[in-house]
Amino acid sequence: MKVVAIDFETANETRSSPCSIGLAWIEDGAVARVDHHYIRPWDMRFAPFNIAFHGIGPRHVQDADEFPAVLDRLRADLDGALVLAHNAAFDISVIRRTCEHYGITPPAFDYMCTVQVARSVWPSLPSHKLNVVGRHLGISFKHHDAAGDAYACGQVALAAAGQAGAVGVHDLPSRIGLTLGRLSHGTYAPSQSRYLPKKAPPPPRPILPPGAERRLAGRTVVFTGQLDTMSRPDAQDLAAAMGARVVLSVTKAVDLVVAGPGAGAKLRTARERGLQVMDEDAWLALVG
């Protein structure tokens, strides 16, 4: 069975705006090769937040093919493969939404989410984001680079297979109680975990330096998208410990939105209302 790990970067908040894809092929128990393609988004709309996140802008893709041509080159590798992705819901939705936009048939394959794999195999990690799992396993890669992330995703799957005593990556789902997802023309089924070990106990409340408990007093904060250095609940707890009111939607009371990769409607609403929006680096600088 063909096994290939993939990772997309998008030009803006819409899932139909891929600007980069990385792929890593697994053969004989190792990552055998890695490939990367720039993709020219159909409307060439790059959001500043996305550019700051992955470093890709219009100049990188101006001579690149649009998605249908890139998919044509990769379809033989993807059709019938076992596809791996870290947070597969995002990457598979990029394929689905972009194929819908262009009116083309998606490739047909089963897929496995390595976030779900990592949660099953290493339940005590503080987070199961790719950089955290990669650091735990000693994987050297460039995060938020599509080729680097695809390589790391493949290495995570291989390490998990070894840890779980699986014959190979294809044997991993049966070892950890994972149901593969499926994408094909007219068919979509998510990857699902049938069971997961109990989560590690939550960390203690954050210990703050003197005076920090009022640093965000009077602020109403929303978190959206993913964070790399901490989970969203941990970030919410930290904001609350510093005096902020943390809410789940962008209401009229909100005056600060912290946005990570995958931020969608909340980020759009915040921008439309002219609210302060910051990325994870700015958030970490704020909370010190």
From TrEMBL:
This is BRCT domain-containing protein. SUPFAM superfamilies: BRCT domain, Ribonuclease H-like. It comes from Caulobacter zeae. InterPro entries: BRCT_dom, BRCT_dom_sf, Ribonucl_H, RNaseH-like_sf, RNaseH_sf. PROSITE patterns: BRCT (PS50172). GO terms for molecular function: 3'-5' exonuclease activity; nucleic acid binding. Pfam families: BRCT, RNase_T. CDD domains: BRCT_DNA_ligase_like, DNA_pol_III_epsilon_like. Residues 211-284 form the BRCT domain.
